[in-house]
């Protein structure tokens, strides 16, 4: 039991340190020695838990996807309970995506997904998990959506989530809250307008 807990603690420390280092310095610019020092573990411990830095990226994406799906499940529950309108639901989704603290790491992960098929597959699997929630929310905005229209609603919403998650380089004029609120209003109006 102690060994399992020690392994979990080491894994958590490695992933936390990796998030910080990869975000600040980049994935390829961070050495395993720097990661070990920041996580207060040995390089050997990192390699006992992860095969490579790519494995660490995959673990970060997987952990983030698990957390994001839990958050979306809670958002759906609140929508179903009548505690949130559909506009408030999309606003919360967009607020979640607009996280400038994680933006650089997210760019690095996406770039690695194009270079590394395993990381790309992990990102794709994450998106598959998101799509069922997105479809659900789109149908809550317009219960007539089906077929190609529903597929398009899914694509546009996913594009909004990705785009809003990487908006700081465009020097936005609106703050995060206003952007999330207005984007939600516009998306819901567009979804409701589809016949």
Write structural notes for this entry.
Residues 31-50 bind DNA. Residues 8-68 form the HTH tetR-type domain. This is Helix-turn-helix domain-containing protein. The chain has 195 residues and is mainly alpha-helical. It has 2 domains: 1-50, Orthogonal Bundle (Arc Repressor Mutant, subunit A), CATH 1.10.10.60; 52-193, Tetracycline Repressor, domain 2 (Orthogonal Bundle). The protein is built from 9 helices and no strands. It starts with a helix and ends with a helix.
Q: Beta fraction of the residues? A: under 5%
Helix content: over 70%
Give start-end ranges of low-pLDDT stretches: 1-5
Kindly give the count of domains.
2
Average residue pLDDT: 90
Q: Could you tell me the radius of gyration in angstroms?
A: 19 Å
What form results from the Cα inertia axes?
A: elongated
What is the number of helical segments per DSSP (H or I, 4+ residues)? 9
Listing every helix as H and every strand as E from the N terminus to the C terminus, the arrangement reads HHHHHHHHH
Per DSSP E runs of 2 or more residues, the count of β-strands stands at 0
Largest sheet: none
Q: Which architecture of the largest domain does the CATH hierarchy give at level 2?
A: Orthogonal Bundle
CATH topology of the largest domain: Tetracycline Repressor, domain 2
Distance between the termini: 57 Å
Under the CATH scheme, which class of the largest domain? Mainly Alpha
Broad structural category: mainly alpha
């Amino acid at each position: 039991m102690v060994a399992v807990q020690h392994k979990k603690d080491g894994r958590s420390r490695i992933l936390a340190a990796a998030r910080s280092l990869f975000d600040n310095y980049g994935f390829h610019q961070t050495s395993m020695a720097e990661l070990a020092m920041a996580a207060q573990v040995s390089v050997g411990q990192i390699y006992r838990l992860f095969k490579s830095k790519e494995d660490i990226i995959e673990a970060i994406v997987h952990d983030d996807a698990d957390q994001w799906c839990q958050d979306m499940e809670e958002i759906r529950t609140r929508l179903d309970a009548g505690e949130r309108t559909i506009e408030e639901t999309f606003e919360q989704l967009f607020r979640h995506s607009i996280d400038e603290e994680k933006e650089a790491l997210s760019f690095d992960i996406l770039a690695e997904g194009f270079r590394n098929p395993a990381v790309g597959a992990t990102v794709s699997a994450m998106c598959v998990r998101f799509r069922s929630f997105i479809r659900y929310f789109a149908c809550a905005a317009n219960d007539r959506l089906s077929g190609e229209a529903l597929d398009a609603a899914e694509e546009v919403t996913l594009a909004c989530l990705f785009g809003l998650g990487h908006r700081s380089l465009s020097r936005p004029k609106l703050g995060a809250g206003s952007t999330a609120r207005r984007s939600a209003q516009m998306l819901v109006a567009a979804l409701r307008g589809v016949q």
